[in-house]
Every structure is written in structure tokens, then in C-alpha cells.
């Protein structure tokens, strides 16, 4: 039936949701499946056009035909609506994940660490870029002092122990210079190293 | 026979503060001073102290996080907090600069007076100030992020409002965010899905289809509430308050669907539909927890 392809897409969306819930990653964009659903929509559209034409034609058994045509037209419309809903749900879910990625990791103070963009459709890549731009714009102005994309776990300790996970040499942050040698340990103020923890260089102990 | 003189005493207490502050008599001893401070504070409600503002912010933060709808934006409060954060950051910087100076001066200077004064200032107050600042910043950040999430969620719903209502509901920045984000999101959805649809199905905010595409807040969401009473604590002046059979103050609300009346007693906690207590929350008589 007509809605079945779209159903596959929704199953895919559900899997994405679970994946994202567990490990914060985004699988490939299902381009061929989406294209198939869109092709189905085009077919349905042709059907409705055909039905409309039929309705215009004068025929002998007009009253009986009219009833059938109305029913056919309505069901095709419903199928298209169903497909639209599934496509939008899939796309919206993906854009939500992209949004959380943009908030989470895309802009440290140095704007490094870009997200892996291979699996995205080019529309999505554009969206991600523009959304990151929007976030940067928001963080300026009156909200500069409260770093909006900063951590959302309440600060419970002023100083923490961190261990270096990745060798990164000397890294310049806003507050000073750290020499990040692998497996060395620091006792530093939490607000200084929050960014480095987000980017995965440090591990909080 | 007991003559209740509490009200006379209260009046006397208020008098002594007035006299004390002018400093004409020395009657007011320590104990009367400390007791009279409390009613004096209570009567000045429109108190714009940092402590009061922080308490207000906490209330706003909790309400925003728990309520299903986007609440109105307390612009003056947030503005005050932001300016305070800025000045505090400057203060901290100045103090730590002072530390650096005294460190470099310390050993070379042999003046006894100066040395002892420098030795006295420990790092502890500075540390506390920084930790405090981090906390306030966290709350503001969490508050704004929570609001932005709701703005995203109700983006289509918010578009229906007229500009005046929006001014009250959103800050300038949030409005900017809303319009810009709905623009780029629409571009994405248009480009990947809607473009290929027949014309009658291209709308993103279609309310006539089999499913309504505009998501409204869930007005009947159950929320935990704590009944606080009127913010100024003048219980007798609140027209909504009434006494129940046990002599306790309570608000009477009606759940429309069940046609059931509920008494919300002061200082107690309920699980209640949001729609029912919405008015009380707006006026600050009930808080979400």
C-alpha cells in the first residue's frame, strides 16, 4: 500500500532517536528512501490530476460516477498527506539532532571541532551552518557574559581534578596556557577547563 | 482575663525603628532592633535588592522549567541581573589585579603596616565571589536555554500572536531567534519535502488536515505546585483567599472537566492541572516545583 515506504522511513527515524539517545550520533541521511517516497507522491499527484479531469468530463451516469470519483480523490489525498507527515517527521527529527549538536560541541571559545558532515544531505549541511551562525549571533550582545552554550550541569565544585586524554601540546585558552601532555593531571578551576572537557581533551575525575 | 496587646507591641516596634534611625533617643536596645527589622523588611515589597532579585529569578527559573507553556519574559529583572554580573566580574578582576600588585610589592616593601594588611587578605572571599558568579550565570543560562527550547517547540503557535503580545512574551533577542530559526528551518523543510508536494499540501501550518500541524502547549499537563499565598503576605486583602472549616486560608479552584472544586490550602503541595492554576501562577500566588 501507499503508506508503507513512508513507514520504513519512520522506523528509521525511531532508530535515529534511540541512537541519539544513547550515544549522540546521527546516521546517514536516507536519500534513496526519501526519493522513493517523493516519487510515490508524484504518482499520487498525477492520479489526482487525472481524477480531476475525469470529473470535468460530461458522462451519462454522472451521479454514480461522482460518488466514486469523490472517494478516490479523497483517499489519494489522504495518502499524500500521510507521506507528507512521515517525511516531515523524519526531517524534523534530524534537524532537532543537528540543533543539539550545534549547541553542544560546534562552538567552543575557539570555534573548532566541527561535526562530521558526510552523512548529511546538502540541505541539512546548509541548515547546520546557518543555525551555528544564529547561535553565535545570539551569544553576542547583552548575553555575552553568560556563555549560552556553556554547561547545563550546575557548578558544584570550584576546583576539579582533570586528566589529559589526548596529547595536544600547548593549548592557548582564554584564561591561560595549558601544556596538555597525555596522562598528566591538573588541579584547575572548573570554569577554565569546561571547554576542553566538552571537546574531549580532558576527563574530569 | 487576658488582654491581647500584640498589636500595640507591633506598633511600638515600628515606632522604635523610626526613632532609632533618626537617632534621637537611645531607648532601642539590641533586642528590639533585631525584632523590628523583620516587619520593616516585610512592608517594603517593591524591594529591588540583589537578594530579592535572585529569589525572583529562582522562582522564574523553576516556573519556566516546569510549566508547559512559554511564560512572559521578566525584562527588567534579567537586565538588572546582567548588569550586576558585569559589574561583579569587573570587581573580581580588579581585586585579583590588586593581588598581583601586592604579591610583587610584598617582598620588596618592608613597611610593617603594609605587609600585615596584605597578609590578611586571603583568597577565600575571591573564591567565594567567583563560585557565586558561576552559579548565577548558570541559572541565567539554564533559564534562557529553557526558554529558547520552548520557542523552538511552539514556533508555529507563537506566529499566531500579534506583535504586542509577543513583546510581552519574548525578549528582543528571543524574537530575533524565533524569526530567524523558523526561517532557516522552513528553508530546510521546503527544500527537502514540501517542494515536491501538491499545492494544497504545501503549507507547514495546516490546521484543516487530518492532523493539526500547529503544536499548542499541553494546557492540561499535571504539574507539582506549592501554594505560597500572595507575595506581599497580606492575607486579608487577597479577594481570592478564603478560610476553610479548619480556619486555614485556601484558594478555591474549579476543575472544569470534572466539575469539581478543590481547596488549595496555603503552604501545601499539590499535583494539579496546569490550566486550573494558571492564573494563580501568573500572579505569583502559587509556585511550580
Automatic annotation (TrEMBL), chain A:
Its main location: nucleus. GO terms for cellular component: CMG complex; GINS complex; nuclear replication fork. The keyword Hydrolase does not apply. InterPro entries: GINS_A, GINS_bundle-like_dom_sf, GINS_Psf1, PSF1_C. GO terms for biological process: DNA strand elongation involved in mitotic DNA replication; double-strand break repair via break-induced replication; mitotic DNA replication initiation. Residues 157-204 form the DNA replication complex GINS protein PSF1 C-terminal domain. It is found in: Nucleus. The keyword Cell membrane does not apply. Gene3D superfamilies: 1.20.58.1030. Keywords: DNA replication, Nucleus. It comes from the Eukaryota. Required for correct functioning of the GINS complex, a complex that plays an essential role in the initiation of DNA replication, and progression of DNA replication forks. GINS complex seems to bind preferentially to single-stranded DNA. PANTHER family: DNA REPLICATION COMPLEX GINS PROTEIN PSF1, PARTNER OF SLD5. This is DNA replication complex GINS protein PSF1. The gene is NCAS0A10340.
Automatic annotation (TrEMBL), chain B:
Residues 109-190 form the GINS subunit domain. Keywords: DNA replication, Nucleus. Pfam families: Sld5, SLD5_C. Residues 16-38 are annotated as: Disordered. Its main location: nucleus. The keyword Nucleus applies. InterPro entries: GINS_A, GINS_bundle-like_dom_sf, GINS_Sld5, SLD5_C, Sld5_GINS_A. Residues 217-289 form the DNA replication complex GINS protein SLD5 C-terminal domain. It comes from the Eukaryota. GO terms for biological process: DNA-templated DNA replication; double-strand break repair via break-induced replication. Residues 18-38 have a biased composition (Polar residues). GO terms for cellular component: CMG complex; GINS complex; nuclear replication fork. It is found in: Nucleus. Belongs to the GINS4/SLD5 family. The GINS complex plays an essential role in the initiation of DNA replication. This is DNA replication complex GINS protein SLD5.
